[in-house]
Amino acid sequence: MRTRFGARVGRSGQPVVTWVIIAVNVAVYALQWLLPNDEVYQDFAYATALTAAEPWRMLTSAFLHSQGFVLHIVLNMYTLWIFGRVLEPVLGRVRYLAVYLISAFGGSVGFFVLTPVSMNGVIGASGAIFGLFGALFVVVRQRGGDVSQLLILIGINAVLGFVIQGIAWQAHLGGLITGGLTTAAIAYAPRGRFQLVVQIGGLALVAALLVVLAFARARMLGGSLPTSAV
After folding, report:
1. pLDDT value at position 146?
2. How many other C-beta atoms are found inside a 10 Å radius of the C-beta of residue 51?
3. Are 82 and 150 in contact (CB under 8 A)?
4. Phi, psi of 207, rounded to the nearest 5 degrees
5. Of 164, 43, 157, 173, nearest in space to 108 by CA
6. Is the pTM of the predicted complex or chain greater than 0.90?
7. Amino acid 223: pLDDT
8. What is the chain's Cα-based Rg?
9. What residues are labeled active site?
10. Phi and psi, residue 122, nearest 5°
11. Residue among 149, 174, 150, 148 nearest 161 (CA)
12. Measured between alpha carbons, how far is residue 102 from residues 2, 123, 143, 163 in Å?
């Protein structure tokens, strides 16, 4: 038996993927402290100037957090746990992971598109977390539920991105939109034998649109982006 979104019913119900994502973030955070010369940050943080040379940073940066502000990882992982234990059983583990990772990428694309080129590093799971905000909004709406409290929560977090220095609201916006779109592709796929195919196609389409946006932005910037790391 499966849920409306295609997830299998009757599993343990434990948010295994959420636990794994949290464990990876914590492990990477430990490495940030243990490895010398800020090595993890230097190798995996995202900077818009490095988009063409090292595009994988747009995803790896979502697993790094500020060493100077411990609450950065604490708050992100707590929010991930709260939303993950709701969304993972509903969407299914693989679909949920896809939404999370594509949202993380979408957060970086949002930052790339909406900010000037620079070598300023951007790290944190916030883009992916905002993707879960968007995902829960779609799930609740699809079920006919009340989204007013969720909208207030999203609004508060959005405002914080403008009033607190160092928060990349552009990444939050990119993640939020991406999470909503990817989950809509899952939630509104017609039930039946082709549901999974439609869902995969929808997720691939959102990911492709993000790549096109990033590519278009890179083409527009032209020589402003180095083609090799420095």
Report:
1. 86
2. 23
3. no
4. -60, -40
5. 173
6. yes
7. 57
8. 18
9. 126, 172
10. -125, 130
11. 174
12. 23, 16, 23, 27
Per-residue pLDDT tens over the stretch 139-183: 999 988 888 888 898 888 888 777 777 788 999 999 999 999 999
d(CA 78, CA 80): 5
Structure tokens at 111: 């930052």
Q: How far is CA 149 from the centre of its chain?
A: 21
pLDDT in tens, 18-40: 999 999 999 999 999 999 999 99
- What backbone phi and psi angles, to 5 degrees, belong to 42? -65, -35
Q: Mean pLDDT, to the nearest integer, of 31-59?
A: 94
Question: How many angstroms separate the first and last alpha carbons of the chain?
Answer: 53
Spatial CB neighbours of 79, under 8 Å, sequence gap ≥ 6: 129, 132
Amino acid of residue 228 = S
Residue 110 half-sphere exposure toward CB, CA atoms < 13 A: 23
List of domains in the chain: 16-224 (1.20.1540.10)
CB 92 within 8 A of CB 196: no
Nearest Cα neighbor of 93 from 42, 157, 17, 23 is 17
Window from 62-71, 159-168, 170-179, 209-218 with minimum mean pLDDT: 159-168
